[in-house]
Design goal:
It is built from one helix and 17 strands. It is an all-beta fold.
């Protein structure tokens, strides 16, 4: 059962939603895209595929992959990529991980961890430092630019697309959204003198 152009996947744990954080149900809506499962397992690769992803690898996918929605008559539906039982089609995952390996971004996709706001720079009520993060899962495109996992970077506004991977919040974005590599010793923000 192989597709000419799509990967065949199933959700990592058999669930379509990842709506429990620290033992608390954070959403009960089937239409809430913020809590859909984003991690899947590869069941089959496309016919003729020669990339690094293999059967059994974990992948990160779009938020609508496993989402349920309701049509105009109120009938429950699955997205276009539902195949049968617990199997789905996807064309391009965002990242992959071998069973015993680390996550790696695919193509232009890179994942950045937000930096907690220590309130020492810009005065804000945000819990995360605005537009600053640490590269968590890189890609080959980023490496060619001299960026590495663990680098502190500034990214463009509205480029953050949240994922929860292994219980940790990360943002998926494109390599082109990374605008500045910061020095290790500072946040890139001038601290106020008191």
């Amino acid at each position: 059962m192989r597709s000419p152009q799509y990967f065949v996947i199933k959700s990592k744990d058999g669930h379509r939603y990842d709506n429990v954080r620290n033992g608390i149900i954070i959403s009960t809506s089937k239409e809430d895209h913020l809590v859909t499962t984003r991690e899947a397992i590869i069941i089959e690769t496309p016919i003729g595929y020669e990339g690094p992803i293999e059967i059994g690898d974990a992948v990160l996918v779009h938020h609508n992959t496993f989402k349920i929605y309701f049509d105009m008559q109120g009938r429950e539906k699955s997205a276009w990529n539902y195949f049968k039982d617990d199997l789905f089609f996807i064309d391009d995952p965002y990242a992959y991980k071998k069973p015993d390996g680390q996550w790696k971004g695919i193509g232009r996709y890179v994942f950045v961890s937000p930096v907690p706001n220590d309130q020492s720079g810009i005065k804000t009520t945000d819990t995360e430092f605005p537009l600053v993060g640490i590269i968590k899962f890189g890609n080959d495109e980023m490496l060619e630019l001299g960026l590495n996992e663990g680098d502190r970077v500034v990214f463009e506004p509205e480029s953050e697309y949240p994922f929860y991977v292994n219980g940790e919040k990360v943002y998926r974005m494109y390599t082109k959204n990374l605008t500045i590599k910061l020095n290790e010793q500072d946040n890139g923000i001038k601290k106020e003198d008191n």
